[in-house]
Amino acid sequence: MTGLVKGIIISVVVVVIIGIIAIGAGVYWISSHSGEFLEKSKQTIAEGEKFGRDTDNQGCVTETISRHRQNPGLSGAISTQLFLTSCLRSSRETPGFCDDVPKRTEFMKSAEWQAQQCAREGLRGDTYCPQIFSQVQTFCDTHRPSQ
Q: How many other CB atoms are found less than 10 A from the CB of residue 34?
């Protein structure tokens, strides 16, 4: 066996071992923090419901964008989606709120609309911003009169 082949085999074994260690560390971290994550999620949902009782649909979106700007990462994106969903459910109707919102099944229109909304909010190129407006679409899809 040549030195090159031995080097490749050793490299592959090292990469596999590092991968196994990383997966193990991830599983450990998730299992040790799942209760904390669940509690934070419940708290965020309660905040959304409470906020929604005192505002309208657009107020929920405005507050969600504000929260997103404060915490734009992955955990913030999850939190803002939970907040927005619960807020919209408990908020007052904003006249015309869903009028220009495409259905989620209109994929091209949806992507374009989400990008436009993010740009309007000054969040062009933000990885998680479209998910906020995807939640708006889900809300509108369930609250439109049947056509």
A: 10
